[in-house]
Design a protein that fits this description.
Elements (H helix, E strand, L loop, with lengths): L2 H13 L15 E5 L6 H17 L3 E5 L6 H8 L7 E6 H10 L10 E16 L8 H10 L5 E4 L5 H13 L4 E4 L3 H10 L4 E5 H9 L4 E5 L14 H4 L7 E9 L4 H16 L1 H8 L13 H22 L5
Parallel strand pairs: 1-2, 1-3, 5-6
Antiparallel strand pairs: 3-9, 4-7, 4-8, 4-9
Helix pairs in contact: 2-10, 4-12
Bound molecules: D-malate.
């Protein structure tokens, strides 16, 4: 190998921080966490809680950068292209780091262009509606939608987002049809659901629960086998007449590929410290989030889970032939 190539490799390694003691002084400055949806939505809320929790053990600020569009795939692309130095993090979830790969022709590979750091939290969706929707339960909601063709709109965070896929599966389960209206996140969509611009939404519990509790919207069911401990009066989809309509929006944290292992390990330690912190746990649990066991809070567990989710969902999503209109 000639001297120029050796120098180039050494320089790359140095820049990528893969040199000896790469993590010794990491982090020496603020870290950016790229959030793939609009501020105020469920991903943004999880990101800000985790950023605050991780700050303590990292000793540096974790700054949130909301990058929206194309159901989060623009943000994930920006993270994948970032320098592998530990100063750019990609937070996302089931739709951004699994579903998008089956819907968009992405300029990056979800499994090889990002390196996993850790699973974070997961929450089910709620079937929610504006209070003026004259249906008291799922059965009457389905009948009302069918009786009002062309008059029912559901908010989504874009084609392929969790709220969109949840909406499509709800249509399949209930044999209903209604319009999907895309937003830059279900944070902004929620404002239009409350105002009555939208009638329904399949929304992550973390986003809808505060509005349900404030009686700004109403919930018909939770897309999980058991009721939420923080919202015991919301029936499960099994109890509500949609047996097996389970959706869990799990979150994870990634970095660009080739980020040095000592840096990835430091970030995983910071995630575990945040998820073990009682104040962080309280904020997450009251939003209906579930914290994974500690032995799942590591890069290998996220890598295995994400791969299994891709193998499970890509054939289903592709068969659903979802349009990017
Ligand atoms: C958001 O943060 O807006 C959500 O992840 C979007 C969704 O649940 O579809």
């Amino acid at each position: 190998m000639n001297i120029f190539r050796v120098t180039a490799i050494a320089l790359t390694a140095l820049i990528a921080g893969a040199g000896p003691g790469a993590a010794d002084d990491y982090p020496s400055r603020a870290i950016t966490m790229i959030v793939p949806f609009a501020a105020g939505g469920p991903t943004d809320v999880v990101a800000r809680i985790m950023a605050e929790g991780m700050r303590h053990s990292l000793g540096q600020q974790v700054i949130i950068e909301n990058v929206t569009g194309a159901a989060g795939s623009i943000a994930v692309g920006k993270a994948a292209r970032a320098a592998p130095d530990g100063y750019t993090l990609s937070i996302g979830h089931w739709s951004t780091h699994v579903v998008n790969g089956a819907i968009y022709s992405l300029p990056y590979d979800l499994l090889t262009d990002l390196a996993p750091v850790s699973l974070l939290v997961s929450n089910p969706q709620l079937i929610v509606a504006n209070p003026k929707v004259p249906a008291a339960d799922v059965k009457s909601l389905v009948e009302w939608i069918k009786a009002n063709p062309g008059k029912v709109s559901a908010g989504t965070a874009g084609a392929g987002s969790a709220s969109h896929i949840g909406g499509i599966y709800f249509q399949n389960f209930s044999k209903t049809d209604f319009l999907f209206v895309p937003y830059r996140g279900t944070g902004p969509a929620m404002q239009d659901l409350i105002s009555g611009q939208l009638q329904i939404m399949l929304d992550q519990s973390s986003n809808s629960l505060p509005q349900v509790q404030a009686k700004q919207i109403k919930a018909y069911a939770v897309t999980s086998k058991t009721r939420l401990s923080v919202a015991p009066d919301i029936p499960t989809v099994d109890e509500a007449g949609l047996p097996g309509f389970y959706i869990s929006v799990w979150h994870g944290l990634w970095v660009p590929k080739d980020t040095p292992k000592p840096i990835v390990d430091k970030l995983a330690v910071a995630v575990r410290a945040a998820l073990a912190d009682p104040a962080t746990q309280k904020r997450l649990l009251e939003l209906g989030q579930e914290i994974p066991p500690v032995n799942q809070q590591n890069p290998a567990a996220l890598a295995a889970f994400q791969k299994a989710e891709i193998e499970k969902w890509w054939p289903l999503i592709k068969a659903a032939n979802i349009k990017l209109d």
